[in-house]
């Protein structure tokens, strides 16, 4: 029986939460708490954002609090605001998840996590100026100032695509919608708003007044960081998500292909001082990725230890 427990501990240390949860009751007499913590850990590892904050009494309060900081609120008025208050905890979890998937050689979900990070990266750039992480309930009024084309559907002078115009139009009013509409917006459109904001400040060929709320002495710094976020979304690393010849799920890159794509991406990003942070050797499996996210955020964004701390708690439970 001790050897069986040792096997479960090994599974915990490999972040194999689903396997550990399924096997625990065969080894431990009262496995309810272990199963609950495993379910919690698997949701985090799978980036199942709607369910991070599900109450689980077996999970220590500190772990639940840190998970809630990575969660999108499920209603317009939900408190606390979680990832709409700051995206930095969520990006810390993304980085930790990427590292875990790399060490487990689960490269398809790893690339998917990188893709998610690329979609919301512009909001990380805007966070210091917004004072939040792009909360639709707290957009600055200046976005809709006189002369602004932000969210005006069909305006041909606007550089936003039709889908971006639709998403931006909706983000200005979604805080007044019922919970179902709020969740549908986050499922389909919020990431497009992130890209649209970056286009406004960093790539618009016909600027309007939408960005006039940004102080002139901070605009250039924001533009550089937003431009790097847009560039990252189009790098060879992120494009691995769409590289399968027959569609999603049929082509999994090898570790060598991932590293080669990241090396090419680093060279593309290194054209300015913000993007050049990607060339740092910071000890991460994809060296420089945490440094890049920190530079775009203008604040430290290290990998979290949330998954590691869940593993530590599981080991303690298994040794009782």
Number of helices: 14
Low-confidence stretches: none
Please identify the structural class as seen in this structure: mainly alpha
Radius of gyration: 21 Å
Give the SSE order as H and E letters: HHHHHHHHHHHHHH
Would you tell me the overall average pLDDT? Answer: 94
Shape: globular
Helix content: 55-70%
Cα separation of the termini: 13 Å
Main beta sheet, described? none
Strand runs, count: 0
Percentage beta strand: under 5%
Architecture blueprint of SSEs:
Blueprint: H1 2-13, H2 17-27, H3 32-45, H4 61-68, H5 88-103, H6 107-130, H7 162-171, H8 179-188, H9 190-202, H10 216-233, H11 236-239, H12 255-269, H13 289-297, H14 306-318
Structure description:
- With 320 residues, the chain is mostly helical.
- Among the domains are: 2-89 and 306-318, no CATH class; 141-212, no CATH class.
- The chain contains 14 helices and no strands.
- It has helices at residues 2-13, 17-27, 32-45, 61-68, 88-103, 107-130, 162-171, 179-188, 190-202, 216-233, 236-239, 255-269, 289-297, 306-318.
- Helix 1 (2-13) runs antiparallel to helix 2 (17-27), helix 3 (32-45) packs antiparallel against helix 14 and helix 5 (88-103) runs antiparallel to helix 13 (289-297).
- The mean pLDDT is 94.
